[in-house]
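Sat 14:20. Reprocessing the chain from the morning session after the first attempt stalled halfway. Input below, unchanged.
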Amino acid sequence: MNENIDKSITRKMFAHEAANPPDVCPQCGAQLVQDFGPYLVATRSDRRWTDEFVMNGPFGYLCPECPTAVIHFPELSKMFDGIPAQPDWEIGAKFTVLGVLDLDAAPPGKENEPLELLLPYILTLFTLDEAPDNESEPVDTSIERTLYFAGEKNPPRKCPECKRPLLLDYGPYLVRRIRRWRGDEEYALAGPFGWLCSGCATVVIHIPELVETMEDVLGDMGDEINLTVLGRFNLEDVPPELAHLPPDELPPEFLVWYPHASKPMMRRKKRPRKPKPKRRRKRK
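Finished this time. C-alpha cells:
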C-alpha cells in the first residue's frame, strides 16, 4: 500500500467503464494509485439490494492528492464472473462499491477478528459521483432519534418524516431480543440494517436485514422473533484509550438511547402442524 494514500477520508467514487484501467484522477488530474483494498461491494437485483462482499482486487484506484476513488468496473466484473456461487449467496445482476476498508483503523487487540464485525471501525463509505448533493451530507450520530421500523423486503429509501433520502449506517446498535418467559437478551450488532436521515432526527431500522444479521451471528432463532433497537453506540466520539473495548463495554455516555423506541414484533409463519387423526367412535 502506498503510504501517501489515506483510507480514512471520505472519497467521491467515479466509475471507469473503459477496457483500459484509469490513469489520472478525474477531479484534479493527479496520477492515480492502484489499491487492492479490501473494498465492500454490494449487489442488487432491479431496485432490491441482495448481498454484500468484502473483496480484494486490482479494480480500485485512489488519488493521493484529493478525496477521489475510481473503480475499474470491467475488472470488478471479471472477478464476479470467476467467483464460485455458494448456496446461501444472493448475487444480483448489478453491483457497486460502497467503500474501502481502512485496516489500520482496527482497535488494538481486534486485528484478528472477522472483517464483518469490524466494519463500524474500519469502513470508509464512498459518495457517488452521480448522487444528489443531499445524499452526501454528513450525519450526526450523537443525537437522539425517533425510531421507525420497516418490515418490507426492500430497504427504506426516504425518511418517513421529512422525505429526504436515508443514508445507510452500520452502527453498531444495541438490539434487544424479547423472549417470553426466558428473559430478554441484548446484543451489540453492526450491519446494513440502520438508515439515518441527515435532515432530521430520524432512524429507520430495516427489520428483515436486522434478523438476517442476528442469525449470521447467533444462528437460527426459531419461528418467532421479537426485536427492538434501544440505541446506537457513538464510536465516533470514543477516545483512543478506549477504542480497544467492545461496544457493549464502553461507558454509558457513548450509547445514544432512542427514547421513542417501540416494541416491534416480526413473527415468522409457524410450521404447519400435521392434523390429528379423528377418533372413530366405537359402535355399541
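The helical segments are 73-81, 115-122, 207-218.
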